[in-house]
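Morning. Coffee machine broken again, so started the prediction first thing and wrote up yesterday's gels while waiting. Chain of 248 residues, entered below exactly as on the submission form.
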Amino acid sequence: MGNLHPKLAYMAKTILHKADTRGKADHGWLQSFHSFSFAGYYNPERMNFGTLRVLNDDSVKGGMGFGKHPHDNMEIISIPLEGDLEHKDSMGNTTVIRKGDIQVMSAGTGIYHSEYNKNEQETVKFLQIWIFPNKKNVQPRYDQITLNVEDRINKLQQVLSPNENDEGVWVHQDAWFHIGTFDNEVEQTYRIKKSGNGVYAFVLKGKFLVEGQQLEHRDGLGIWDTESFNIRSNEEGSEILLMEVPMA
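Came back before lunch.
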């Protein structure tokens, strides 16, 4: 070991998911790409990344949406990318989420909700993300906040954490999400918040070099067994979502 280069001694483990390897569902009114097995898409090698269970990239046509349906014992996060999405649930919430917002539901003992695109002329695009919770059968909870997107220019803005008083929404899990929008060739170092966690990096727009891997639009890269890693934007206006989650 004495002659081994330090960087080689501590190489992070990675798994690359190119955008065109994702599962796809075309329901006419809904176009959905699945980074992990979901509904009719099953891939035994793509079940989850640690406690990150679902990462769906959804587009819903104008006037359409998901009717009332149940969830339980899951932390469900929605990040709108374009358009407006109306949410209604069995807790009495009726809200609209837009780009710059982030929404979270702790499904816990069970909830029903629906999501609709009420704009007849515009497609709504959003990410639907599910995380396994670290506590079961909690009281269902809903939260939604509007973030200042200026705070993510050329830096990573925290949008989710385990802590109710931290920046962003919170979940019942030792997870942290960050979003950054970068000029060309801007570099950042991400440091793992909790030992044993990994990060799933997902490119929302543009191009990045992450842990030596070239990533483009909607590519995903899982990184674990490391304390930190570097990202570098390779195109003006590139945007990335980093999802740190426990690996077990």
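The chain has one domain: 6-246. Going to sketch it on the whiteboard this afternoon.
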